[in-house]
């Protein structure tokens, strides 16, 4: 009985050693040996370099972990020339592939055969983002999983305005309401009207930025910021007026309530107002604080305002 147990123990130990030996041999025989097969990155994005013991492999595809579908993007040669646009991502030899959206994305670069550089854009989707890079060498397949965490968001810090070379005020003339007297007026009479009456005659402004995430982080926070009320001698002046920081246009009454009275001649006549308007452009710098890291994030752009100046003229038509 003791001999039987001893024999079984010896056989089990032999098989275990054999299995370990085989596994080690498999690793040594593998053509694709990345330094890691899992990348976990924070929402802010960044860059990771993966090294390989051999460069005899290709990127067969890149799969979105949400839905298990191929990701489309652009493919570039080692010289930086585009090979394919909006194609299923794959790469033979050296070069670059990229898939960039407004609120997430990545660039995978292979400058040398035995290295991959994976760069992730900041993830502002509000959810986790993940994809799998599938590598292939002959019949051998290896996967590198990339997981980018959900952002913890930002807090509003401050808004600064400044004047750059292209900023300032400019004036233009806009045609206002036309008043027609198509009936025969028996004799001259007085007519009172609002020079700034009509449709869509407002003071309106909006914030614009070329940065894709300029309005993502605080779009639900209803942040009101103090905006310029005057520009004089290349200086910006404020008077406490506030507007909602948003990519959408903000409107308010123009504030000119005075009325104008003219003498309408007898017979048929017509006139319209010529309104003077101001177009204002000012640069802004928005400072946000990252909820996770406490680091500052800067977003730059322009604030535009279009508003009547209060000046106008009356043009009679023949």
Give your account of this protein's structure.
The protein has 318 residues and is mainly beta. It folds into 2 domains: 32-148, Immunoglobulin-like; 154-317, Beta Complex (Proaerolysin, Chain A, domain 3). 9% of the residues lie in helices and 54% in strands. It contains 1 helix and 23 strands. The chain has one helix spanning 2-29, and strands at 38-41, 46-51, 58-64, 69-70, 72-76, 82-88, 95-100, 105-110, 115-120, 129-137, 140-148, 154-162, 168-185, 189-193, 203-208, 224-226, 230-232, 235-237, 242-244, 250-252, 260-264, 267-290, 296-317. The protein has a 6-stranded antiparallel sheet, with no helix packed on it. The longest helix has 28 residues, at 2-29. It is elongated. The chain starts with a helix and ends with a strand. The relative contact order is 0.15. Residues 1-25 have low confidence and may be disordered.
What's this entry about, in short?
This protein has 318 residues and is mainly beta.
Topology of this structure?
Blueprint lengths: L1 H28 L8 E4 L4 E6 L6 E7 L4 E2 L1 E5 L5 E7 L6 E6 L4 E6 L4 E6 L8 E9 L2 E9 L5 E9 L5 E18 L3 E5 L9 E6 L15 E3 L3 E3 L2 E3 L4 E3 L5 E3 L7 E5 L2 E24 L5 E22 L1
Parallel strand pairs: 1-11
Antiparallel strand pairs: 2-9, 3-4, 3-10, 5-6, 5-7, 7-8, 8-9, 10-11, 12-22, 13-22, 14-21, 15-20, 15-23, 16-19, 17-18, 22-23
Beta-strand share of residues: over 45%
Identify the overall geometry.
elongated
Helix/strand class: mainly beta
CATH class descriptor of the largest domain: Mainly Beta
Taking pLDDT < 50 over at least 5 consecutive residues as the criterion, the unreliable ranges are 1-25
How many structurally independent domains? Answer: 2
């Amino acid at each position: 009985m003791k001999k039987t147990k001893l024999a079984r123990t010896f056989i089990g130990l032999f098989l275990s050693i054999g299995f370990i030996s085989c596994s080690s041999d498999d690793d040594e025989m593998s053509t694709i040996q990345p330094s890691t097969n899992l990348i976990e990155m924070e929402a802010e994005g960044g860059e990771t370099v993966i090294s390989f013991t051999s460069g005899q492999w290709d990127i067969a595809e890149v799969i979105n972990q949400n839905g298990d579908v191929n990701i489309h993007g652009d493919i570039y040669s080692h010289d930086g020339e585009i090979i394919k646009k909006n194609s299923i991502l794959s790469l033979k030899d050296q070069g670059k592939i990229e898939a960039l959206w407004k609120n997430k994305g990545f660039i995978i670069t292979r400058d040398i055969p035995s290295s991959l550089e994976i760069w992730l854009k900041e993830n502002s989707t509000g959810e986790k983002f993940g994809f799998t890079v599938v590598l292939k060498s002959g019949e051998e397949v290896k996967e590198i999983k990339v997981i980018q965490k959900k952002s913890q968001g930002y807090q509003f810090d401050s808004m600064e305005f400044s004047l750059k070379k292209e900023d300032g005020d400019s004036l233009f003339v806009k045609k206002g309401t036309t008043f027609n007297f198509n009936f025969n007026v028996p004799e001259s009479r007085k007519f009172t009207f609002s020079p700034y009456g009509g449709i869509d005659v407002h003071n309106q402004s909006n914030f614009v930025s070329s940065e894709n995430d300029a309005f993502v982080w605080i779009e639900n926070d209803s942040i009101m910021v103090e905006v310029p009320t005057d520009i004089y001698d290349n200086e910006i002046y404020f008077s406490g007026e506030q507007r909602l920081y948003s990519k959408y246009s903000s409107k308010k009454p123009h504030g000119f309530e005075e009325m104008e009275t003219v003498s309408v001649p007898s017979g048929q006549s017509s006139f319209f107002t010529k309104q003077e308007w101001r177009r204002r452009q000012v640069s802004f710098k928005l400072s946000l604080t990252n909820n996770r890291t406490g680091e500052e994030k800067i977003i730059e752009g322009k604030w535009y305002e279009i508003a009547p100046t209060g000046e106008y003229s009356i043009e009679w038509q023949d």
